[in-house]
Design goal:
10 strands; 3-stranded antiparallel beta sheet; Elongation Factor Tu (Ef-tu), domain 3; mainly beta; 5-stranded antiparallel beta sheet
């Protein structure tokens, strides 16, 4: 049996900036739209793969330091910039056992401040991919 992975040291890079130490949760969503191809006489639903609708969801612990969370994300949303997101299960080099998920993304919504008294200021950010997310193993 294969050994399950426990996430301890993910690599999260946004627009060339390593934000791994500013995040505490990551999800890579690789999704295709469902296209109904059911015809008369089919006897049941028929489906085909539609267009990709991939995205990255990353939970950040807010930080206003230079080259950190807010300094990286705020201009990307405000300036409507396309950028690259790269995520790996560990900070080790890309390999068959440590694939890198990479996509060109845009940032449509960003919440620079949220929280309550005594709580960590965190924000969940969705990065929709322009096209598909690639899985690289070399």
């Amino acid at each position: 049996m294969a050994t399950p992975i426990v996430l301890k040291n993910c690599r999260i890079e946004i627009d060339g900036v390593d934000l791994s130490d500013g995040s505490n949760q990551v999800t890579v969503n690789m999704t295709k739209n469902e296209v109904d191809t059911t015809s008369f006489g089919s006897g049941g639903r028929r489906r085909a793969h539609g267009l990709s609708d991939d995205s990255f969801e990353i939970q950040f612990m807010q930080d206003y330091s230079a080259a950190s969370v807010n300094a990286t994300l705020s201009p990307l949303q405000r300036n409507e910039t396309e950028f690259t997101v790269r995520v790996r299960p560990t900070s080790d080099p890309v390999s068959a056992t440590n694939p890198e998920y990479e996509g060109t993304c845009i940032l449509l919504e960003y919440t620079p401040l949220t929280g309550a008294p005594g709580e960590l200021s965190e924000n969940s950010v969705t990065f929709p991919a322009q096209g598909s997310i690639a899985e690289n193993t070399v």
